[in-house]
Amino acid sequence: MFVRRNYVQLARTLTAVVLTLCVIVGIAWGASKTQDQATEQALKMTAESIRRAAVQCYALEGIYPVNIDYLIDHYGIRPDTGRFIVHYQFVADNLLPDIMVLPIVR
């Protein structure tokens, strides 16, 4: 009878430990997933803000900017260069540049 109580107590303790670990893993996974979604949204927003600034430049000045530095200096965009790599490829004065924003992998 004494041995049976020890097994029951051990089973309860192990169950509590396993459930606690499951909760911790679930929270960590959820936080990671949320961070990934936030980064993806920031990528899209950065690319869209650069694209809108380029289109605004074309509407006001009649040409698309040759490089992203012009947009930074004259149109107030501030891409987060610590988190993202911005690829801005000028095509022609009257064609929308190729704009791609990629995350920096650490």
Notes on the protein architecture:
There is one protein chain. With 106 residues, the chain is mainly alpha-helical. The chain has one domain. It contains 2 helices and 2 strands. The chain has helices at residues 2-61, 68-75, and strands at residues 84-89, 98-103. Strands 1-2 form a two-stranded antiparallel sheet. A hairpin with an 8-residue loop joins strand 1 and strand 2 (98-103). The N and C termini lie far apart (57 Å). The model has no long low-confidence stretch (mean pLDDT 88).
List keywords for this structure.
106 residues; mainly alpha; 11% strand; rod-shaped
- How many structural domains are formed by the residues? 1
Average of per-residue pLDDT values? 88
- Helical/strand content category: mainly alpha
Describe the strand arrangement of the main beta sheet, using strand numbers: 1-2
How does the overall form come out from the CA principal axes?
rod-shaped
Major β-sheet annotation: 2 strands, antiparallel
The fraction of residues assigned to DSSP E strands is: 5-15%
Q: Distance between the terminal alpha carbons, to the nearest Å?
A: 57 Å
- Number of DSSP strands? 2
Ranges where pLDDT stays below 50 over 5 or more residues in a row are none
Give helix % range.
Answer: 55-70%
Give the number of helices. 2
Q: What radius of gyration results from the CA coordinates? A: 26 Å
Secondary-structure element string: HHEE
